[in-house]
Automatic annotation (TrEMBL):
Statement: the UniProt record of this protein carries the keyword Methyltransferase: yes
GO terms of molecular function: methyltransferase activity
BP-aspect Gene Ontology terms: methylation
Organism field: Streptomyces spirodelae
Keyword Transferase: yes
Designated name of the protein: SAM-dependent methyltransferase
Pfam families associated with the record: Methyltransf_19
Swiss-Prot/TrEMBL keywords: Methyltransferase, Transferase
């Protein structure tokens, strides 16, 4: 990794195993990965050629959703769990460009993301950003720490992009979403992307199997029906649960290529 970026200070103990945050960064064209991440990332790409398109579409979806929430929806607080390594157009940059007073809390449990978190903290002077090194398996601990920056009596956008797929048990994943959304008041939003086998993507099954045998953490695809359960009790915004490449606020961009990743936004009534 040191050839491509500043050493993070302390070498993470997982450098001999490809890890999702770094491989995702590799697929996105970043520079914060080790050789093992590149090797595994390339092998997955050889099996599942559209994976880079999935990664790029996921980030584009983040931009569309956050711009809409900070703009039209008037949301000023964002809790982005499973942040990933800093890249272009992180949540605070998108939100604070629209509304400089926006407050953003980032959460990830990857030591490499923690080492690079400073780039996520350089927000607008009028707003605030914070980074919490925490595990999504413990949503209450995340909420307790996030309360130092976010006011949970005001609407919050809870952002879970590409992370519930690392919570293997669907019931636990659903409970995590419920705990987070229960803490947020009416007018809050859930923003979510999730890989699926229902939207095509040649080689996806084999690539996920390869990932689970060679990298961390293990990944789980879900059906549209399973993803819909995460939104129970919430009002799905149009166009509903669609390929994240096609999601636009209020409509589906039919000219965009479908990628094997659902994306959706919902409002808490
Ligand atoms: C596929 S990346 C998505 C990054 C970013 N949200 C995006 O959409 O571009 C998933 C991120 O979730 C993080 N992650 C995975 N399991 C986690 C857990 N149990 N707790 C916190 N973060 C986790 C990984 O470290 C990684 O940075």
């Amino acid at each position: 990794m040191s050839e491509r970026s500043d050493p993070p200070g302390e070498t993470p103990p997982v450098a001999h195993v490809a890890h999702n945050a770094r491989v995702w960064n590799y697929w996105l064209g970043g520079k914060d990965y080790y050789d093992i991440d590149q090797q595994v990332g390339d092998h997955v790409t050889s099996m599942f050629p559209s994976i880079r398109e999935v990664a790029r579409a996921d980030r584009t979806f983040l931009g569309h959703a956050v711009r809409f929430l900070a703009g039209e929806a008037g949301v000023r607080q964002f809790l982005d769990i499973g942040t990933g390594l800093p890249t272009v157009e992180n949540t605070h940059q998108v939100a604070q460009r629209v509304a400089p007073t926006s407050r953003i809390v980032y959460v990830d449990n990857d030591p490499t993301v923690l080492a690079h978190a400073r780039a996520l903290l350089a927000g607008s002077p009028e707003g605030e950003t914070d980074y919490i090194d925490a595990d999504a398996h413990q949503p209450q601990a995340i909420l307790d720490a996030a309360a130092d920056t976010l006011d949970f009596t005001e609407p919050v956008a809870v952002i879970l992009l590409g992370i519930l797929n690392f919570i293997a048990d669907t019931r636990e994943a659903t409970e995590i979403v419920e705990t987070l959304m229960a803490a947020a008041p009416s007018g809050s939003y859930l923003v979510l992307t999730h890989p699926t086998l229902e939207l095509g993507g040649d080689g996806n099954v084999e690539a996920m199997r390869f990932w689970n045998e060679n990298a961390a953490p293990p990944i789980t695809a879900r059906t549209g029906a399973e993803v819909a359960r995460f939104f129970q009790g919430l009002e799905l915004l149009e166009p509903g649960i669609v390929s994240c490449a096609r999601w636009r606020p209020g409509y589906e961009a039919e000219d965009e290529k479908t990628v094997a990743q659902f994306g959706a936004v919902a409002r808490k009534p």
